[in-house]
Amino acid sequence: MKSLLNYIDGQFVTGKREFADVNPADGSVIAQVAEADQGLVDDAVRAARKALGREWGGWTIPQRAARLRQVADGIEARFDRFVAAEVADTGKPAAVASRLDVPRAAANFRVFADMITTAGLESFQTESPNGKNALNYAVRKPLGVVGIITPWNLPLLLLTWKVAPALACGNTVVVKPSEETPATATLLAEVMKESGIPNGVYNLVHGFGANSAGEFLTQHADVNAVTFTGESETGTSIMKTVAASVKQVSFELGGKNAAIVFADCDFEETVSGVSEAVFFNSGQVCLCAERVYVERAIFDRFVDALKRKAEGLRAGSPWEEATDLGPLISSQHREKVLSYYRWAREEGATVITGGGVPEFGDELDRGFYVQPAIYTGLPESARCVKEEIFGPVCHVAPFDTEEEAVSMANDTRYGLAASIWTTNLKRGHRVAQQMKVGITWVNCWFLRDLRTPFGGVGLSGIGREGGLHSLNFYSELNNICIRL
Fold first, then answer.
1. Could you tell me the CATH number of the domain that includes residue 189?
2. Does 286 qualify as catalytic in the annotation?
3. Which one of 179, 180, 215, 286 is the catalytic residue?
């Protein structure tokens, strides 16, 4: 049985207890994971603190950037191993991990290596009435030790999205990946070591949240900032924990995202785009659309077309090229999604398609698959319309006016993403700017420029990451004023 260890101060370390890493495609145990106790978390934070004052703290920006590019090269050199680890942990189709997760991980290190070497800061020549003029300029300093807690849906992509800019700014990190998906964070530790990242700069602790590594990390007095992607409820708990020590936080949390489809849309392009927005990664992406609002003139036609798309998706082994849908991450999460399927029916929804569990007749029946589901007919107050489900499901509702569509889309405590589908460019701009979210797509979904701000409002998070927004979060900006 494979063992996944903690990585502290350049060494792989066992823990006092282990837990199972389960393949969600067939329910098999693929590794035993060493859980970090309070002592190991203390060791990791101590190592990270020490590394700040050793060679990493004295490296120039070009030196750090060059080493991050080596990390990107190391990921690409182990491309197949990263794909295999990601697929085994998440159950997502290998084609998706090969196209998205692993390439984006390497890109994250290259983008932020380039960005830190070219990022400018403010400077002002200040003229005062008494003639005592001054020069004000800012310098960028590392925050210190950053605690990074990442989710299970895009484990490698979202881990490197945080680690890369944190290291680029000169910080050291202690990473706690999801207990569901520990493998790629461990493999990244190997890459860090072989790429010459100094000991203590990247530390990894495995475990859970409460009374385990996650809680020990966020409570630690020597951690200067915490960045977290995951459930809104967990983000609330972390905020309460860090409040006493006033740590800086960046949260990217849940979403109940809307897609607005106007009658003048490019119909076939929109059906394909909305289908991807709803069902990609079995709906296990915080940016997925669980609420779809369609102009009444094309409502029936659109629902029928989306139904055909959903029923054409093939669930199966993540290693088969024909597979479109992998499993959900765990039996517990599958039960959660199925409970919402039941509530939808109890609340009076019309079942357009799906809502059950597929049967394969082989070992995949031990996996955690569900059928993609489409519902209509629920009131906007229904639980399945208001609460994040995080599965391959959407509710489709009609609207008559642009104002009505905007109102329904914004009627949520979340505010992560939205998509607008129309060939009227003026309408696209107008409606997009009214969305109370962090990112709005027009005639597309999941298209990202890593230089742009990313984050949410309301229950969807605090702060922005991406480009200079990431560099500024992971830095202390120090103004220096010199009288001329």
1. 3.40.605.10
2. yes
3. 286
